[in-house]
Amino acid sequence: MIRAMLIPRRLIMLGLFAAFVLWCALALDWSWLPRYTPLALSGLWVTIWLLVVTIVLGFALAVPLGLAQAIGPWYLAAPARAFCTVIRGTPLLLQIWLLYFGLGSLFPQFPWIRESELWPYLRQAWPYAVLSLTLSYAGYEGEVMRGAFASVQKGQIEAARAFGMPRFKIFRRIWLPQAFRQALPTLGGETILQLKATPLVATITIVELYAVAARVRQDTFIIYEPLLLLALAYLVIAGLITLGFRWIEQRGPRQ
């Protein structure tokens, strides 16, 4: 690793990066940082929470969507294909607004909803943020999983059937692990894109990282410093996601 870092072009890049960091530390105004650090940590937690919850729920929904398109009958494949087409063909911001300003504005019109135990949650913004991000991730990953399921060699499945293995066991031990490995590089890239999509929920009053940077700009009229920290935070999280998926690729199921 040390020898790889001693390549001249990498040394130049590291020098330029160090100079940029030093310039930022000395020339920019960071007096606002202690005041907004608690809010920034809270926004970081909201961003990570949204990312983890939506990719877990989205992938859980993407698996049946991909399976329905790959081998399902037409009455399952057609709705799954239509769902993926609509999600991939419309902007995520539009989906968020349709759920929050559209669906969210309908619930107060029904007294039985306002009087139910769900109303304290339905009146908040985060359920619509989670739902929209989950559906978006599922729509994209459903198409990815369709191709991954179709790429698994049919001979292995036929051999498992010949040995009398039940369908669910075939799916759990042969089909899903190999399809997951096929889709893993794309899943990593889509997870990073999901991270970059989280700032859109700031438009429906969710206070995540971008919303914190926007509040600092509004309160102090300082523009570049919070945006630079925001970019650094997203860069670090994206790097950790990349390392995590690379680790899974190295230790995951192999064909």
From TrEMBL:
Gene Ontology cellular component terms for the protein in this record: ATP-binding cassette (ABC) transporter complex
Transmembrane segments: 43-68, 227-248
Entry's localization field: Cell inner membrane; Cell membrane
Gene Ontology terms describing biological process: amino acid transport
Gene Ontology terms, MF aspect: transmembrane transporter activity
ABC transmembrane type-1 domain sequence ranges: 44-245
Keywords annotated in UniProt: Cell inner membrane, Cell membrane, Membrane, Transmembrane, Transmembrane helix, Transport
Gene3D superfamilies from the UniProt entry: MetI-like
Membrane topology: Multi-pass membrane protein
The family this protein is said to belong to: Belongs to the binding-protein-dependent transport system permease family. HisMQ subfamily.
Protein name as catalogued: ABC transporter permease
